[in-house]
């Protein structure tokens, strides 16, 4: 089966804002006729920016797991919990549903995003044509789960609200939440700076 032509082969270019498909007029100041955004075949410096953001996010993720993320006070017992110990604390205190949510949002989702973005970057930079469709779907998955990445921060806020219902005597957010929030925001920006069109470029990447 012959390889399908790319948009650049057909003289087309897609707007990265409104997704309108436009004619590639090859002008340096070309703009989308619908929304007026500048048109460009590929995001400038996509590899460099995404790698920098991904590494920065990983560096913030380490203290997010080491430093305590919340403090719980129950019956005079004060506990400063990291993400993992907080998950155990929630489970022991009779909130397994919240424990599963925190584990998914704090451990599964960030690790999946680190692995997925790293795989996309390495394979695209090497010009690999391996599983291009699947890698495209993987990128869309990373974008989708990015919307749910702040669940852990929301859970800490929820736990604080649960105080009035008597589940805990006191719950306070600690510095680990800040580092985790930074990790979430930076990974979201990293996924935005990565240009998924690079997956299809192979050795012909312009970046």
UniProtKB/TrEMBL annotation:
UniProt keyword Calcium, yes or no: no
Keyword Cell membrane attributed: yes
Location within or outside the cell: Cell inner membrane
Membrane-crossing residue ranges in chain numbering: 51-70, 98-123, 144-168, 174-194
Sorted UniProt keywords: Cell inner membrane, Cell membrane, Membrane, Transmembrane, Transmembrane helix
Origin superkingdom: Bacteria
InterPro entries the record matches: PqiA-like (IPR007498), PqiA-PqiB_transport (IPR051800)
PANTHER family on file: INTERMEMBRANE TRANSPORT PROTEIN PQIA, INTERMEMBRANE TRANSPORT PROTEIN PQIB-RELATED
Full protein name: Paraquat-inducible protein A
Native species: Dyella kyungheensis
Lineage of source species: Bacteria, Pseudomonadati, Pseudomonadota, Gammaproteobacteria, Lysobacterales
């Amino acid at each position: 089966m012959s390889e399908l032509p790319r948009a650049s082969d057909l003289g087309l270019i897609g707007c990265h804002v409104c997704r309108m498909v436009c004619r590639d007029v090859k002008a340096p100041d070309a703009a989308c006729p619908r929304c007026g955004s500048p048109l460009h075949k590929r995001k400038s410096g996509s590899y460099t920016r995404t790698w920098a953001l991904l590494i920065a996010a990983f560096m913030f993720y380490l203290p997010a797991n080491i430093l305590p993320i919340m403090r719980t006070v129950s019956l005079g017992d004060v506990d400063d919990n990291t993400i993992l110990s907080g998950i155990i604390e929630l489970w022991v205190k009779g909130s397994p549903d919240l424990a599963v949510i925190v584990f998914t949002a704090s451990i599964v989702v960030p690790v999946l995003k680190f692995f997925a973005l790293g795989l996309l970057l390495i394979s695209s930079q090497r010009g690999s044509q391996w599983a291009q469709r699947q890698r495209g779907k993987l990128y869309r998955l990373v974008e989708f789960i990015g919307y749910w990445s702040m669940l852990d921060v929301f859970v800490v806020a929820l736990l604080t609200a649960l105080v009035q219902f008597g589940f805990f005597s006191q719950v306070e957010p600690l510095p680990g939440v800040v580092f985790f929030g930074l990790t979430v925001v930076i990974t979201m920006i990293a996924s935005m700076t990565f240009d998924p069109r690079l997956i299809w470029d192979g050795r012909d990447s312009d970046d």
